[in-house]
Write a structure and sequence with these properties.
Strand 7, helix 11 and strand 8 form a beta-alpha-beta unit. This protein is of the alpha/beta class. The two termini are 27 Å apart. The strands form four sheets. It has a six-stranded parallel beta sheet with strand order 2-1-3-4-5-6, with helices on both faces. A five-stranded parallel beta sheet has the order 8-7-9-11-13. The longest helix is centred in the C-terminal third of the chain and has 28 residues. The chain folds into two domains: 213 residues, 3-Layer(aba) Sandwich (Rossmann fold), CATH 3.40.50; 139 residues, Rossmann fold (3-Layer(aba) Sandwich), CATH 3.40.50. It is built from 15 helices and 15 strands.
């Protein structure tokens, strides 16, 4: 039995609810979360003091999973928006350090490397991103590329003069520097033994960028310290750390099957490593061991793209799965990464035409390749290794994933967004009904009721609540 305390990165369902659900796939585990009202959103930072007080008062905790951004800045979005100075932030981390030092627990922590989104959308960035976001991205990309290619920054003015006001560039670079210095401080804490595992997450990456440069520097600084990882991804990292905490000692062997094996060296959107490397990296972080089919405990089916990953939220489409799906005769699970931000309809339809339930250990297709992989792997490992499997909860998690990743992200979202419909629960209830009726039958959950909401008051994500 493990008592697990989780400090999520914010209040989104995949960060708050899903972490608790995966932990509870073993009935022997008991999960503790700060009240969701304490958590940050895209509009407000977390109540850091209340979260620290909550953690301090917890007794007999075995495992702590911490989103360090929540304590440092108030959450993932706040890490990009906060104007607090280095010393204010460090003081919060020092208070966290004091609290953790009194816990007889294993500590698994992660911090983001501040992303650089290639658009002019400021929903999760500072206000000036609405006008200068793409220009800042180009500046970041080109200055790092110049350093890598020519070992010089002499051409920097070419990418800044007249494009980005000096005061905005100054604010942006100082915010980056502050966050980078905080990340370096975490390495110092890891060397002191405060964390058992520390992960730096690369959110929304490209081949070049100041975030990529920082990742390289963090890798160099931590190369002699055990159990520090720099990983492509973000929201799935706590799920992977839960799995690592619970399953790494089990030595569970995972074999991979790709639907398009000839394309495993292609790079997904928002990532800077190949599909193959992403899969293997996610297995490692979650506490699994890569294996061949004959010797494996679990089989991971990766529905990968042929040429370029689709991106449904941007109306970029990739050819879907057109083969006959062979269900393995071993325990198996699925990461559907043909698209960023939503399932492959052809694959899902083929999957449900099969006798899939025997040996089925989960499905995921939400958002980036790293998101989908981390979710699928952590779910499968935790459920497979559970001392007392919670079969009912597993079915509910799968119902939610297919309702969210397939029904909503791949089908409904574009319809209500393109029609400029209001963010109405009534509208989504009506449009999701056919899917929910079908899926409830698939997972033997005919008697449950389902509610939907928009937790961040936008079309991008929904919350699926099963009653």
């Amino acid at each position: 039995m493990s008592n697990i305390a989780i400090i999520p990165i914010d209040n989104r369902p995949v960060c708050y609810n899903l972490a608790a659900q995966i932990s509870s796939l073993d009935r022997e585990n008991k999960v503790f979360l700060p009240d969701i009202s304490f958590m940050g959103t895209n509009k407000k930072p977390a109540d850091i003091n209340s979260i620290l007080c909550w953690l301090e008062e917890l007794k007999n905790i075995d495992i702590v999973i911490i989103a360090l951004d929540t304590i440092a800045y108030g959450g993932l979005v706040s890490s990009r928006k906060s104007n607090d100075d280095f010393f204010e932030i460090k003081a919060r981390i020092e208070r966290l350090k004091d609290i953790l030092s009194k816990k007889n627990a294993r500590i698994f922590a992660f911090s983001s490397i501040m992303r650089i989104s290639n658009n002019n959308i400021n929903d999760e960035e500072k206000e000036y991103w609405s006008e200068y976001g793409t220009k800042i991205y180009e500046y970041s990309y080109n200055i790092h590329k110049l350093e890598k290619t020519f070992k010089t920054t002499d051409l920097i003015s070419k990418y800044t003069k007249g494009n980005i006001p000096p005061e905005i560039l100054k604010d942006y670079t100082e915010t980056r520097k502050r966050n980078f210095e905080i990340n370096k401080y975490y390495i110092e804490l890891k060397s002191q033994g405060i964390f058992n595992t520390l992960v730096f997450s690369k959110d929304d990456c490209a081949k070049f960028g100041l975030n990529v440069k920082e990742a390289e520097e963090l890798e160099k600084l931590s190369e002699k310290i055990k159990d520090i990882y720099v990983k492509t991804g973000a929201d799935e990292i706590p799920l992977s750390l839960i799995s690592r905490a619970l399953n790494s000692a089990k030595k569970t062997k995972i074999a991979t099957i790709y639907t398009n094996p000839e394309s495993i060296n292609k790079i997904s959107k928002y990532e800077d490593i190949s599909v193959k490397n992403s899969v293997e990296s996610q297995i490692e972080l979650a506490g699994g061991i890569l294996s061949n089919y004959e010797d494996c405990d679990l089989v991971l089916i990766v529905n990968n793209f042929k040429s370029e990953q689709g991106e449904l939220v941007m109306n970029v489409f990739e050819s879907g799965y057109e083969k006959d799906l062979k269900i393995p005769n071993k325990p198996y699970f699925i990461a559907d990464i043909l698209n960023a931000n939503g399932a492959d309809n052809l694959f899902v339809n083929t999957f449900f035409s099969k006798e899939f339930k025997k040996n089925f250990y989960g499905y995921s297709a939400w958002n980036t390749t790293g998101n989908s992989l981390g979710c699928a792997i952590s779910t499968a490992l935790t459920y497979y290794n559970a001392t007392r499997q919670n079969a009912g909860l597993f079915s509910e998690i799968q119902l939610i994933r297919f309702l969210d990743d397939w029904a909503y992200q791949a089908n409904i979202r574009s319809k209500i967004r393109d029609n400029e419909e209001n963010l109405s629960n009534g509208i989504i209830n009506t449009k999701m009904e056919t899917y929910s009726n079908f899926l409830k039958k698939q997972f033997n959950l005919n008697n449950v009721s389902i509610e939907y909401s928009f937790p961040w008051n936008r079309f991008f994500e929904i919350e699926v609540s099963i009653k």
